[in-house]
C-alpha cells in the first residue's frame, strides 16, 4: 500500500522576472516500509522534492498525500502538527542542540508530543543503545565526533516511531568508513520498525542501500527502478545490514535555470 503519493507536482521559484523550474510534473508513490533513494546531482531538484514531500515547502501545483492526507492543502499549523506526529528527519549537518546532551536531543520529539520526562528519557536511552552510543549518552555535541553526532540524529529521527523518516544527504559530512556505519544503522532501524525511509543523495554508493532508486534530472524523474542487488529470492526475507564493529546536465528553467 502506498504511504506517500506525489501527484503531478510542479515547483517553480521566481527570481526577479525569471521562473526557475525545480520540479516538473513529478509523479511517484512510495510504499509503507520501503527504503527509497532520490538520486541526483546538484540542481536536479532532489532536495526540493524532499522538502515538498516533508511539508517544508508547498508545491506550486499538484498534490502530496501521506497516509491519504493531502498535506499540500493543510494550513501551516496543521502541517506542523502533522510533521510532529508522522515525520522524522536526519540532516546532513546533524542539527543537534549544542547545549543539550545526547539523551536530551533524542528525547526532544517526544517532549513535543507531551510524553512525560521519565518515559521519554527511557525511550531515548533505548534508542541510543540501539545506535551503539551507550557510552556517550551524557555527552554534548561538541564532545562527540561527526559520526557519533549523526547517530544521535538517527536516534532522534526514529525515537517517536514516525511513519516516515526523511534523510537529506545524511552522510555528506562523514568519511568513507563512518558513512558505511551510519548507513547500515539507519537502514537497520528502518527495517526493524517497518518505517518508510526516504534518502536524498548525489552519491550512487549511498543509493545502493535502498530498495528502490528514483533518479531526478532537471526536475524530472528519469528512472525509477528496484535495486536488484538487494532483492530477496522468492519466499525469502529482505537482507538485514550487518552491524559494524565501529561506529547532467546544466540546470534549465523556463527562462534558464533550475534548483536543487
TrEMBL record:
InterPro entries: AAA+_ATPase, ABC_transporter-like_ATP-bd, ABC_transporter-like_CS, ABC_transpr_LolD-like, MacB-like_ATP-bd, P-loop_NTPase. Keywords: ATP-binding, Nucleotide-binding, Transport. Transmembrane segments: none annotated. GO terms for molecular function: ATP binding; ATP hydrolysis activity; transmembrane transporter activity. Residues 225-260 are annotated as: Disordered. Residues 4-243 form the ABC transporter domain. SMART domains: AAA. GO terms for cellular component: membrane protein complex; plasma membrane. The keyword Transport applies. It comes from the Bacteria. Pfam families: ABC_tran. SUPFAM superfamilies: P-loop containing nucleoside triphosphate hydrolases. PANTHER family: ABC TRANSPORTER ABCH.1 (PTHR24220:SF86), IMPORT ATP-BINDING PROTEIN (PTHR24220). This is ABC transporter ATP-binding protein. It comes from Candidatus Gallacutalibacter pullicola.
Amino acid at each position: 500500500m502506498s504511504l506517500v503519493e506525489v501527484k503531478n507536482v510542479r515547483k517553480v521559484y521566481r527570481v526577479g522576472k525569471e521562473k526557475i523550474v525545480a520540479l516538473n510534473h513529478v509523479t511517484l508513490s512510495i510504499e509503507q516500509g520501503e527504503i527509497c533513494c532520490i538520486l541526483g546531482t546538484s540542481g536536479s531538484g532532489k532536495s526540493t522534492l524532499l522538502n515538498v514531500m516533508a511539508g517544508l515547502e508547498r508545491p506550486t501545483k499538484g498534490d502530496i498525500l501521506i497516509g491519504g492526507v493531502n498535506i499540500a492543502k493543510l494550513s501551516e499549523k496543521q502541517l506542523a502538527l502533522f510533521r510532529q506526529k508522522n515525520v522524522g528527519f536526519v540532516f546532513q549537518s546533524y542539527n543537534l542542540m549544542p547545549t543539550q546532551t545526547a539523551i536530551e536531543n533524542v528525547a526532544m520529539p517526544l517532549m513535543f508530543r507531551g510524553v512525560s520526562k521519565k518515559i521519554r528519557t527511557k525511550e531515548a536511552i533505548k534508542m541510543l543503545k540501539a545506535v551503539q552510543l551507550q557510552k556517550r549518552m551524557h555527552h554534548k555535541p561538541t564532545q562527540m565526533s561527526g559520526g557519533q553526532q549523526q547517530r544521535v540524529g538517527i536516534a532522534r529521527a526514529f525515537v517517536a516511531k514516525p511513519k516516515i523518516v526523511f534523510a537529506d544527504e545524511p552522510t555528506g559530512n562523514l568519511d568513507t568508513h563512518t558513512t558505511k556505519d551510519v548507513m547500515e544503522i539507519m537502514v537497520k532501524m528502518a527495517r526493524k520498525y517497518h518505517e518508510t525511509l526516504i534518502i536524498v543523495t548525489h552519491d550512487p554508493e549511498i543509493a545502493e542501500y535502498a530498495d528502490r532508486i528514483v533518479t531526478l534530472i532537471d526536475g524530472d524523474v528519469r528512472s525509477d527502478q528496484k535495486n536488484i542487488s538487494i532483492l530477496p529470492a522468492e519466499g525469502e526475507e529482505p537482507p538485514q545490514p550487518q552491524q559494524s564493529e565501529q561506529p547532467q546536465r546544466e540546470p534549465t528553467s523556463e527562462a534558464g535555470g533550475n534548483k536543487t
